[in-house]
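Researcher: Re-running this chain for the archive, since the previous output was lost when a drive failed. Same request as before.
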Amino acid sequence: MSSSPKSNGNRQETNTSAEQQMQALRELVLGKDGQYVKQHMHSHARELVGSVVVEALKDRQKSDDALEQVLVPTVEKSVESSVKNHSDQFIGHLYPLVGRLVRKSVTAFLSEFLEKTNQLLEHSLTPKGISWRIKAWHAGVSFSQYVASKTFAFRVEQVLLIHRDAGILLNSVANDENQATDADLVSGMLTAINDFVSDSFTSDSAENEQHLAVVKTDDFTLVIERGPQLMLVAAVTGNIPQDISTKFQITNEKIHSLYNKEIADFQGDTAPFDETEGLLRACLLSELKPEHEEQRKKPVLALFFILLLLILAGFYGYQRHKQNQLSDLVSTLNDEPGILITELETQGLSRVYAEVLRDPQAQVIDNWLSTNQIASENVAIFERQYLSLEPQIVKKRLEGVLEKYPQLSLNWEKDLPILKGTLANIQKLELTTELMTIPGLQNISDIVEPVLVEELDTLEDDNPEILNALFEINTAKIERTQIEFELGKDILTHESKRQLDALANYLRSAITLSKKLKLNVGLIIMGASDSSGSAQFNQALSRKRAEVTQQYLSSIGIDPGYLNAIGLGVVEIKATGDSARKVIFNVVKFKTE
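Model: Regenerated structure tokens:
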């Protein structure tokens, strides 16, 4: 039996009246818009939330990872602020963990390094890698994009978060920041394209407005997920799986839910959306092809490459070690008498180069290398000659000269040569002349003096050459004589008188020889002083020293007519130093008419 319209109208009025009464009762009990309940809950909010917050967080974490994505940026900022403001406390707490953290970090680094090295080698040095490079060049795409297309079933290269109405880029993340497309450019492009599609293909109903969901390019595919205020755009390479759009949609909904207030208050400032990076990075999905997934677990090529590097490094280190040993051994050549290394350096991995000064009397360098078992091809030596004054070399020179005089014997007493034997006059003169040419040999007259001559009366020889040679020898002995004086004094010492006695004998011989050679001779006695006194005093002192010497020579039988004493005063030569306090001699000779 059907009800009449009148009865239906009465029933509707009754229901409306009941709802109004119920609303009035709610407002009376709960307050307008639940005001009483809100006030009660606000006053007890701490107790109410505190009793369930842990369980609520645990339940939400089980449902999805939104809680982690929201808390991570907050925790990171809190930790950063705490470390900045309380660094000493953090150092104290973290110090015991640093060792384990470093070891773990190094292990992770090595693992990642091996994997990346293996990929680099596979993509660069293998036939497949070279083939991929050629194909990428023919296709007009970058090598990295081609590798991604061959390695990954799909990979999300970049994710952008864009405000729908303003078209402003709020945040973006990318797998490889160096390869990332300009996010602001993509944002502006998509906004323009979307507006074009919307304006050109709008239906009569605003709810059916047309929008792009996918944009394909040569390099990648843009997947677009729109929300009420925000738009999530992902650049994907490879074959896009069907469920990836769902992942993007869920992420977009989370961002709308978590940043609802920031979206509502948006005035162009993108800073509040920096914390969305964690949510956006969760969208950087990828999936390797099965064969590459297996290869990634076994970086055999990388291990081989690293092993090869270690072998090369070991070989290089071994060669450098051998070269350093060779350099140290060659440097001992410097210890050989008469050899001086001026430059020593390494060349390449096995050779040593040396520049050497060598006395002719020193050991031959090739012989030294052979004695020390050094291969000549490993050592390059540039040799220059010089005259060494080392005692061992002077000895060799003296022994070399004496080889011409087998009738003489040579003995050494405390590095002083002692000659014994008999020579003819001319031979003794020649020996004396040769010894004078030896650098570093001193006291030649003392060395030659013990040698006897066959003719006992040498001055009676009528040979002009012998007479002239004897005259030159006596002259040289006289001029090498120097009489030393103490500071400010002009007194001859016992040693000085001994020297003058010997000089008188040489002078007598020279005078006798000069007569046979028809020469006029004279001895100039020159006194000198240092600069310790005044110029006038020094001049007088130097002349007084010369006169004292002259008087002594006269007292022992030298005719004063052969002597001439002069004072030089101060000898202004820095090299002389204190040795300027002396008397020196010079023999002058003139041919008679």
